[in-house]
């Protein structure tokens, strides 16, 4: 059941960014069904955010965040990444992947409120978030696993989807077993245990005329040794 919306007012916590209260679904991980048969944990909640909050949250994030077009080097060629990205978090939560170094921008009120909701809901702490903006069905994310050293041995990642529904595909590294999960607006996907070591995932392109989608993956960077620029 959705908890009653306590307030739509700004909440101010001393020393921390003010945060926005979202109407989120109360759940306990122990009550959720693990969607993978082996080697990891994967939980899906279709309606973590209420539909009105999902719409509002999408609009805020689309307008507020500093979306960037990154360029990756693939076999010596400079190729634009097929989506826009941003990286926010605690100072020092520097993240390197695909040969690119991401220095965090300071939490916005919207992101900080979502981070708190994610932490309360999952019981895990997060110090950073990767944002992906898929402008339409031509934007995508290739096969990969989130298993960089700075995420720790068994990273726990909370992934919030907003906007157009997109397919999330998973494939087991050894058995080739596959799993397709359509990610609805307002849904939450939780990845944990040894999932990233045994499975890969992607968001393929779609031929459908799709509108935009925002995905936020809340993460915990454990080696904050790198300093900001
Ligand atoms: O957009 C998604 O749902 C997937 C995002 C993802 O795989 C990632 O950020 O590593």
Provide structural commentary.
The chain is of the alpha+beta class. It has one domain: Sandwich (Jelly Rolls), CATH 2.60.120. 14% of the residues lie in helices and 32% in strands. It contains three helices and 14 strands. The protein has helices spanning 51-64, 109-122, 195-198, and strands at residues 41-45, 71-74, 77-80, 84-89, 95-97, 100-102, 128-134, 141-144, 157-163, 166-172, 178-183, 188-192, 199-203, 213-219. The strands form four sheets. It has a six-stranded antiparallel beta sheet. Strands 8-13-10-11 form a four-stranded antiparallel beta sheet. The chain has a two-stranded antiparallel ribbon with strand order 2-3. The longest helix has 14 residues, at 51-64. Bound molecules: 2-oxoglutaric acid. 2-oxoglutaric acid binds next to strand 7, strand 9, strand 13 and strand 14.
Q: TL;DR of this structure?
A:
The chain is of the alpha+beta class. The chain has helices spanning 51-64, 109-122, 195-198, and strands spanning 41-45, 71-74, 77-80, 84-89, 95-97, 100-102, 128-134, 141-144, 157-163, 166-172, 178-183, 188-192, 199-203, 213-219.
CATH class: Mainly Beta
Distinct small molecules: 2-oxoglutaric acid
Outline the low-pLDDT stretches: 1-15, 225-229
Q: What is the total domain count?
A: 1
Q: What do we call the CATH topology?
A: Jelly Rolls
Distance between the termini: 44 Å
**What is the global morphology?**
globular
* CATH architecture heading: Sandwich
Order of helical and strand elements: EHEEEEEHEEEEEEHEE
Tally of helical segments:
3
């Amino acid at each position: 059941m959705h908890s009653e919306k306590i307030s739509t007012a700004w909440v101010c916590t001393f020393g921390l960014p003010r945060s926005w209260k979202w109407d989120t679904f109360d759940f306990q991980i122990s009550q959720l069904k693990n969607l993978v048969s082996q080697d990891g944990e994967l939980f899906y909640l279709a309606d973590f955010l209420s539909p009105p909050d999902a719409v509002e949250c999408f609009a805020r994030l689309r307008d507020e965040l500093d979306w960037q077009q990154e360029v990756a080097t693939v076999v010596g060629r400079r190729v634009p990444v097929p989506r826009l990205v941003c990286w926010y978090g605690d100072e020092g939560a520097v993240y390197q992947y695909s040969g690119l170094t991401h220095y965090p921008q300071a939490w916005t009120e919207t992101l900080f409120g979502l981070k708190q909701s994610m932490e309360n809901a999952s019981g895990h702490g997060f110090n950073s978030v990767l944002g992906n903006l898929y402008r339409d069905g031509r934007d995508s994310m290739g096969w990969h696993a989130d298993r960089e050293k700075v995420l720790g041995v068994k990273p726990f990642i909370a992934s919030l989807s907003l906007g157009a529904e997109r397919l999330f595909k998973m494939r087991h590294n050894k058995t080739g077993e596959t799993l397709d999960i359509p990610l609805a607006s307002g849904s939450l996907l939780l990845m944990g245990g040894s999932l990233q070591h045994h499975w890969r995932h992607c968001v393929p392109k779609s031929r459908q005329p799709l509108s935009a989608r925002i995905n936020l993956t809340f993460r915990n960077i454990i080696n904050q040794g790198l300093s900001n620029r």
